[in-house]
């Protein structure tokens, strides 16, 4: 099984052809359009097996799978103490495991933007993550931790570890959080501003089947987005 996460930087209808070369079973795409609300036949046909959420038809997060995979959207809470967080899209895959697609958003929060949104979501839904993959753009890295904040990137990583969930990039490359050698994002597509903010996390039951983790080629992907795809492959 091969899983890809990629923030397409909008207009996936013009870019989905690039994904075909990756030959993945499941794509988790941030900043993409709702295929059902666009008058774009090719994009609609490509997305014939998908789930999607967003505040408007032009920008949200989607899960796109091959036709032999069953996706069932799950009714997990996106409210924490009466505050709605975004964007989190949970689903069941073939009734075998749970997949949580993430595009961590600022959500106009002065204190709990990005990784704070994920921290809040985790408090409410960690009970569902016994056998799961958490995949997407967290807009976060340990290097941005703040000393007086209890919901830093490091705090979230620790909470995930406590429930048996780890980052497969860090496992595969044997690198520490915050010391990644391969970036996934370039601010304004500037090669001098690299960051690692896209992740594939999973329960440790997936670890023994982890085959490969790869970051997309800079020259190819930076032409069409400010993010590079993260490709994670598992043995059947």
Q: What features would you describe in this structure?
A:
The protein has 236 residues and is of the alpha+beta class. The protein has one domain (2-234): Deoxyribonuclease I, Chain A. 17% of the residues lie in helices and 33% in strands. It contains six helices and 16 strands. The strands form four sheets. It has a six-stranded mixed β-sheet with strand order 3-4-2-1-16-15. Strand 6 and strand 7 form a beta hairpin. The longest helix is centred in the middle third of the chain and has 11 residues, at 115-125. The model has no long low-confidence stretch (mean pLDDT 96).
Entry keywords:
single chain, 236 residues, alpha+beta, Deoxyribonuclease I, Chain A, six-stranded mixed β-sheet, 6 helices, 17% helix, globular
The number of E-state strands comes to 16
Order of helices and strands: EHEHEEEEEEEHEHEHEEEEHE
How many domain modules? 1
Q: What's the overall geometry?
A: globular
- The CATH fourth-level homologous superfamily: Endonuclease/exonuclease/phosphatase
Structural class: alpha+beta
Number of DSSP helical runs: 6
Which stretches are low in confidence, meaning pLDDT under 50 for 5 or more residues running? Answer: none
CATH class: Alpha Beta
Report the β-strand fraction as a percent range.
Answer: 25-35%
CATH topology: Deoxyribonuclease I, Chain A
**Strands across the major sheet, in which order?**
3-4-2-1-16-15
Termini separation comes to 6 Å
Quaternary arrangement of the chains shown?
single chain
Q: Average pLDDT value?
A: 96
Protein name: Endonuclease
GO molecular function: endonuclease activity
Keywords: Endonuclease, Hydrolase, Nuclease
InterPro entries: Endo/exonu/phosph_ase_sf (IPR036691)
């Amino acid at each position: 099984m091969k899983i890809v996460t990629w923030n397409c930087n909008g207009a996936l209808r013009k870019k989905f052809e690039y994904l075909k070369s990756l030959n993945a079973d499941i794509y988790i795409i941030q900043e993409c359009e709702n295929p059902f609300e666009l008058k774009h036949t090719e994009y609609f046909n490509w997305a014939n097996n998908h789930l999607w959420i967003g505040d408007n038809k032009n920008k949200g997060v989607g899960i796109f799978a091959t036709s032999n995979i069953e996706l069932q959207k799950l009714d997990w809470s996106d409210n924490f103490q009466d505050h709605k967080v975004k964007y989190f899209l949970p689903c069941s895959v073939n009734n075998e495991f749970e997949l949580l697609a993430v595009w961590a958003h600022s959500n106009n929060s002065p204190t709990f933007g990005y990784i704070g949104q994920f921290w809040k979501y985790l408090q409410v839904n960690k009970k569902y993550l016994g056998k799961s993959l958490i995949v997407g753009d967290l807009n976060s890295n340990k290097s941005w931790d703040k000393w007086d904040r209890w919901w830093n990137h490091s705090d979230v990583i620790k909470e995930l570890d406590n429930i048996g969930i780890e980052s497969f990039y860090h496992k595969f490359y044997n690198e520490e959080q915050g010391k990644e050698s391969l970036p996934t994002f370039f601010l304004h597509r500037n090669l001098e501003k690299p960051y690692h903010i896209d992740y594939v996390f999973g329960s440790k039951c997936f670890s023994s089947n982890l085959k490969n983790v790869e970051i997309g080629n800079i020259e190819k992907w930076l032409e069409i987005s400010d993010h590079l795809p993260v490709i994670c492959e598992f043995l059947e």
